Amino acid sequence: MLSALGFFAQEHGAEAAEAAQAAEHAPAPPAELLFYIGPIAITNTILTAWVVIIILVLFAYFSVRKREHLPRGLQNFWEMIIEMWMGVSENTMGRRRGRRFMPLVATAFLFIVFSNWFGTLPISYITIVNEEGQTVPLLRSPNSDLNVTAAMAIMMIVLAEFFEFRSMGLGYFKGLFIPNPLRWLEIFTRPLSLSFRLFGNIFAGEVLLITMMAVAPFVLFIFIGLELFVGVIQALIFSMLSLVFLSIATVHEEVHGHEETYSMEGETAAVTHGEPV
Hints:
Strand content: 5-15%
Number of domains: 1
Low-confidence stretches: 1-23, 258-277
């Protein structure tokens, strides 16, 4: 009996030690400082974002450097992405506005997907000693940093508000200054929902992977596959919501565009039938 209790205590102690080791390697919400460029602090999430951007640019350049009329290889990948987002954008916003905003939304999707997938790699074990003498991970998924996701969300909302002002003119301020708390609540909650949703899912995924790597590495591939799938879903959610916000902001342009088209069609019909315009 005592030997059995001792065995279970030993097993429990080993599991506690593994859990403590996993907790030690688990990332903290604030990004870790690497170095300074002048007065600007560079964190591991910012460095990883630069790496992802460089990878995307080089990947795109070498994939379509020799474009062919019948695409093959990596050119198929880029054409698939363009056709997918072209179809989604045109179905959501119409042909004219869809083609206008598709490059922005597709770029955001690709950056978020590659950043999310970067977090599934065992990059947290690549460490350096920073300028403050701390041992920190060199690379970390950009979307596990709330500053990065908040910056992307604010950029999308600012663009949406800018295009709404551009399409409505001075009428834009009517909804701001006439007492309308829901309008102000909408402006502030949109970036919060975009940024916290993406940050929370990706940060939780990184913690899960690092914990499972220390506790049960033999089933890690299951969680890696799950996080790859979650990375795509979160990128789709962020991009689709951004597309919807831009569509709502520019709906006045579509109304005016239909009016102008209807007016031109009426004038053409009148001229065709010999009626005065």
